[in-house]
């Protein structure tokens, strides 16, 4: 019985490989395919000598006319070269750890090459798009934070969509009747109420959490659609709440590129930043966070040290609902200032995907939210730019990104150990 | 217990004050040694739906005393201790500290009353650090609930220095070996100023040498004036460590003895209620040709880590090979891989000379391999099925149980009747759900199903875990019968006693490798050393 060395396992027939290596192979092939695609479509597809111009400032900014011009075809060649290089490196499988990084860099480059191709011969407001990315990431991030608040204590919340939609609806009506601040309060309370419903169903009655969530979603969609058709179409004055206006943060708002991206928005976006950072530190450095996570990881252990598992779960699920309510208010009180049937269109579910992509961590969730925000911004701006791609395909982008991210890029994330399990005492 | 509970709360408050006054300086304890606190369970009864788990149980323990609570699985020990720790509410009866009844509605009440518990399945959050686990529920905080990590670490360090419980406060619990995790549990209990510490089956997860270290810790706690309750079903350990032994059987305390007055045989008899033969009758083995040959097998666990790391061994017809080792050293993955339930990373498995490495579980089963899985309720049986349905679970698809698309239930019932008779399954009938049977009878159903044909290889994982002594005797004798009939037998168990009782040859598994090979008569110490990964392959006979 001689102990074998670790390397012996990877040699031999060579047909059995570790999952990380298999992933590296897949990612490597994807990168090579992308390199060929970029070369063929984006580089050769742009006419020789044509330039793309990226505007780096908004029209009314202090530093006017920041812009960057590149030769469309040459940029395509360069990106294609880098992709091929990255793909080759990954395929060699010498540094399996860096697979994800290579893939991330590759995808950003592809997006950039794509933009260059789409904007060839025209000028394109890059900063406008980045700004839209941040704005559009907000509802996704808030939805993901809702899911995170619940799953960290072991309750699966797939009712985020319904919470967002109902809160948006209530926010509109209350906001139209008593002003936007009242609308905001109404929306947040609505989210809390739906959170409480989910909590009672899941924690007290131990109904299957997926089913409870689906029920709330169907209920929310049905109720808001019905009322929107019956009430809002008659009483149109109840469907114009007005909106929160942007406030530029002094000094920070004037920084080129970053200023318009992050520091010239309405308060919803600032509050989202604060929530992300606050929740991150709260979850990992405070008593509240330690207790919440213990309840989601090992509720029996929490119980035996005197933590009331049920109370912690109720509290966090309701707080999560309030975040969703805030997100719903953002949709109708900041973005469009009116309610439309099914206006969330899956943002709540994309939020769930962002939660998984962000590995149940608030900062990660924000990063994931930006990816989805980028996908939606791309869809919007390309529509304006007028590409040969049919608009139906453009509107698929966010959902396709969701599928790719959850199926391929995430790898194996570890959810809280007691996620979705009701806690039964005695 | 409405009005009573209010009274109890008031009383607890008063008692709490006296206790804190006594507890604070440990120096004063020595001088105040004439006044020892006593923890008492008085007339405790706990009725679960259909089961009377505890029936008028009385138990006392004083500070500075070790009481062993001995009983078979299902005797009601754990239920009793969960009542003492506030996890269950008793149907009737009360818990008293120093003759004052206390209300036990949740573990916080128990903690407040100075009771700490080290659970059989550790109550630790794997993704938290040691200090996070220790302070959970009683966190030192700064402004806004910010956790004071330094104080938390110091709390761990103080206790670990005082009682010799070595552990690094900043390690994640999931990265610690089981023995260290147990130390964390003990630190956690002590950090809440426990006067009484309950250990629920503390040695079942430890290697023999870790058990010795554990006994030293218990001695230290006792010397410091803690009252200890030690729950176990291991007779030798109870004799070694306890001042008093209380024996429970079927929910009742049946005897209370002092170790010097009794022997292991006497304890076993009290525990089971009849004289028990502690030694398995077994003739010399006559190994024949190799049936199972495992060559350089490696298997990943579900986290992608190497659980089995290049193992090679063989099992011959007519011999029993036992795989010893602390749980979680790759045994589960090894068995699942051998039976085709989990793919292997590399290496080859031969069965009767044929390569079966990538064969399906059914194909392996059809080569007359009997598999008694580790977890009978999860992978051995379909709990909401009847005995008959479970008996034909491996043969429902072939004649005579199946007639094309139709099941031949009368044939199935006949088989079930025959096997229930033959394998002594105690049941009201063959159409009861297996979920209603006791653990021992459930295990007999699995054994009956698996052994009812000409078996060439038996793979049995934890074959007698958590079942009564009578069923253990029966299953052991059945396994030896199969060997004598010419089958090759592979037993995997974390109970070293079981391995030693059955095996003709013993392999010790440590971190996915074979850390030692012994013949059946090797001593516990030798094997124990290999279980820690120490011995290498030196002692192979």
Report a brief summary of the structure.
By secondary structure, chain A is mainly alpha-helical. Chain A has helices spanning 19-43, 72-92, 99-118, 126-151, 160-178, 180-204, 209-232, 258-262, 267-285, 287-297, 299-304, 309-335, 347-357, 362-385, 391-394, 397-409; strands spanning 51-55, 67-71, 123-125, 247-248, 264-265.
Key features?
A: 426 residues; mainly alpha; ABC transporter involved in vitamin B12 uptake, BtuC; 2 domains; two-stranded antiparallel ribbon; globular; B: 541 residues; alpha/beta; Rossmann fold; 4 domains; 6-stranded mixed beta sheet; 19 helices; disordered N terminus
Question: What can you tell me about this protein's structure?
Answer:
The complex is a heterodimer of chains A (426) and B (541). By secondary structure, chain A is mainly α. Chain A has 2 domains: 9-121, no CATH class; 128-406, ABC transporter involved in vitamin B12 uptake, BtuC (Orthogonal Bundle), CATH 1.10.3470. Chain A has helices at 19-43, 72-92, 99-118, 126-151, 160-178, 180-204, 209-232, 258-262, 267-285, 287-297, 299-304, 309-335, 347-357, 362-385, 391-394, 397-409; strands at residues 51-55, 67-71, 123-125, 247-248, 264-265. In chain A, the strands form 2 sheets. A 3-stranded mixed beta sheet of chain A has the order 2-1-3. A two-stranded antiparallel ribbon of chain A has the order 4-5. In chain A, helix 9 (267-285) packs antiparallel against helix 14. The radius of gyration of chain A is 24 Å and the shape is globular. The model of chain A is unreliable at 1-15 (pLDDT under 50). By secondary structure, chain B is α/β, with parallel strands linked by helices. Chain B has 4 domains: 1-25 and 129-192, no CATH class; 36-113 and 195-276, P-loop containing nucleotide triphosphate hydrolases (Rossmann fold, 3-Layer(aba) Sandwich), CATH 3.40.50; 277-368 and 456-541, 3-Layer(aba) Sandwich (Rossmann fold), CATH 3.40.50; 375-453, no CATH class. Chain B has 19 helices and 22 strands. In chain B, the strands form 5 sheets. In chain B, strands 6-7-8-3-9-10 form a 6-stranded mixed beta sheet, with helices on both faces. Chain B has a 6-stranded mixed beta sheet with strand order 16-19-20-13-21-22, sandwiched between helices. Chain B has a 4-stranded antiparallel beta sheet with strand order 2-1-4-5. In chain B, helix 16 (439-451) runs parallel beside helix 17. The longest helix of chain B is centred in the N-terminal third of the chain and has 22 residues, at 2-23. Residues 1-33 and 535-541 of chain B have low confidence and may be disordered. At the A-B interface, helix 10 and helix 11 of A face helix 4, helix 5, strand 11, strand 12 and strand 22 of B.
């Amino acid at each position: 019985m001689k102990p074998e060395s670790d390397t012996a396992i990877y040699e031999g027939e060579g047909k059995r490989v570790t999952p990380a290596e298999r992933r590296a192979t897949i990612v490597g092939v994807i990168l090579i395919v992308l390199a060929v695609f970029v070369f063929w479509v984006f580089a050769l597809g742009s006419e020789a000598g044509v330039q793309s111009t990226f505007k780096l400032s908004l029209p009314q900014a202090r530093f006017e006319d920041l812009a960057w011009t590149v030769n469309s075809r040459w940029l395509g060649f360069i990106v294609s070269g880098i992709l091929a290089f990255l793909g080759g490196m990954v395929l060699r499988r010498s540094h399996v750890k860096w697979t994800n990084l290579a893939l991330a860099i590759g995808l950003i480059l592809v997006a950039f090459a794509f933009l260059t191709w789409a904007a060839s011969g025209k000028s394109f407001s890059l900063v406008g798009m980045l700004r839209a990315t941040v704005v559009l990431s907000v509802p996704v991030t808030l939805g993901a934070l809702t899911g995170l608040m619940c799953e960290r204590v072991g309750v699966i919340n797939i009712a985020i969509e319904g919470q967002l939609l109902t809160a948006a609806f209530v926010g509109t009506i209350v906001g139209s009747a008593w002003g936007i601040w009242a609308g905001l309060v109404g929306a947040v309370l609505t989210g809390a109420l739906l959170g409480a419903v989910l909590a009672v169903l899941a924690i007290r009655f131990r109904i299957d959490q997926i089913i409870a969530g689906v029920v709330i979603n169907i209920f929310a969609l049905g109720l808001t659609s019905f009322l929107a058709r019956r009430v809002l179409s008659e009483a149109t004055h109840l469907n114009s709440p007005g909106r929160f206006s942007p406030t530029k943060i002094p000094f920070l708002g004037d920084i080129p590129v970053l200023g318009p991206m992050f520091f010239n928005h309405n308060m919803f976006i600032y509050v989202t930043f604060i929530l992300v950072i606050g929740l991150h530190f709260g979850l990992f450095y405070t008593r509240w966070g330690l207790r919440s996570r213990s309840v989601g990881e090992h509720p029996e252990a929490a119980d035996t040290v005197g933590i009331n598992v049920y109370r912690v779960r109720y509290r966090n699920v309701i707080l999560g609902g309030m975040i969703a309510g805030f997100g719903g208010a953002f949709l109708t009180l900041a973005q469009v200032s009116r309610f439309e049937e099914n206006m969330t269109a899956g943002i709540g579910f994309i939020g769930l995907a962002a939660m998984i992509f962000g590995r149940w961590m608030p900062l990660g969730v924000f990063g994931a939210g930006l990816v989805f925000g980028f996908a939606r911004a791309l869809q919007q701006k390309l529509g304006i730019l007028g590409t040969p791609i049919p608009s139906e395909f453009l509107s698929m982008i966010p959902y396709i990104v969701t599928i790719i991210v959850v199926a391929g890029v995430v790898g194996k994330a570890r959810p809280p150990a007691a996620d979705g399990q009701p806690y039964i005492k005695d | 217990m409405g009005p009573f509970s209010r009274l109890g709360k008031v009383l607890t408050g008063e008692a709490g004050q006296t206790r804190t006054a006594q507890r604070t300086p440990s120096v004063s304890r020595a001088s105040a040694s004439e006044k020892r606190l006593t923890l008492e369970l008085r007339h405790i009864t706990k009725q679960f739906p259909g089961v009377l788990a505890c029936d008028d149980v009385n138990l006392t323990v004083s500070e500075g005393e070790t009481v062993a609570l001995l009983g078979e699985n299902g005797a009601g020990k754990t239920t009793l201790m969960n009542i003492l720790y506030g996890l269950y509410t008793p149907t009737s009866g009360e818990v008293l500290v120093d003759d004052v009844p206390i209300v036990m509605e949740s573990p916080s009440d128990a903690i407040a009353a100075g009771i700490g518990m080290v659970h059989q399945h550790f109550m630790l959050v794997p993704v938290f650090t040691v200090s996070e686990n220790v302070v959970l529920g009683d966190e030192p905080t700064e402004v806004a609930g910010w956790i004071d990590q330094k104080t938390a670490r110091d709390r761990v360090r103080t206790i670990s220095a005082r009682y010799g419980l070595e552990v690094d406060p900043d390690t994640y619990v999931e990265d610690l070996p089981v023995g260290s995790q147990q130390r964390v549990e003990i630190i956690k209990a002590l950090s809440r100023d426990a006067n009484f510490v309950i250990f629920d089956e503390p040695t079942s997860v430890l290697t023999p040498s870790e058990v010795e270290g554990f006994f030293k810790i218990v001695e230290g706690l006792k010397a410091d004036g803690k009252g200890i309750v030690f729950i176990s079903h291991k007779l030798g350990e109870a004799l070694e460590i306890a001042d008093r032994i209380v024996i429970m059987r079927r929910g009742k305390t049946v005897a209370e003895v002092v170790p010097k007055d009794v022997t292991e045989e006497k304890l076993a008899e009290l525990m089971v209620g009849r004289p028990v033969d502690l030694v398995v009758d077994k003739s010399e083995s006559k190994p024949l040709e190799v049936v199972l040959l495992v060559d350089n097998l490696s298997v990943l666990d579900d986290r992608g880590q190497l659980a089995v790391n290049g193992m090679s061994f063989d099992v011959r017809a007519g011999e029993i090979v036992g795989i010893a080792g602390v749980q979680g050293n790759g045994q589960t993955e090894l068995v699942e891989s051998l039976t085709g339930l989990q793919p292997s990373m590399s290496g080859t498995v031969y069965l009767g000379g044929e390569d079966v490495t990538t064969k399906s579980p059914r194909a392996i089963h059809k080569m007359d391999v009997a598999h008694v899985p580790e977890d009978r309720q999860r992978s051995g049986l379909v709990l909401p099925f009847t005995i008959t349905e479970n008996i034909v679970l491996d043969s429902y698809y072939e004649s005579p149980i199946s007639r094309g698309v139709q099941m031949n239930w009368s044939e199935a019932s006949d088989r079930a009747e025959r096997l229930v008779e033959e394998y002594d399954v105690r049941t009201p009938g063959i159409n009861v759900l297996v979920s209603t049977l006791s653990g021992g009878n459930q295990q007999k159903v699995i054994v009956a199903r698996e052994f009812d044909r000409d078996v060439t290889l038996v793979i049995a994982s934890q074959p007698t875990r958590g079942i009564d002594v009578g069923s253990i005797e029966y299953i052991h004798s059945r396994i030896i019968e199969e060997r004598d009939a010419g089958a090759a037998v592979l037993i995997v168990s974390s109970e070293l006693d079981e391995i030693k009782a059955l095996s003709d040859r013993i392999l010790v598994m440590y971190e996915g490798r074979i850390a030692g090979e012994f013949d059946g008569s090797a001593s516990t110490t030798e094997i124990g050393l290999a279980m820690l990964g120490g011995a290498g392959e030196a002692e192979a006979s």
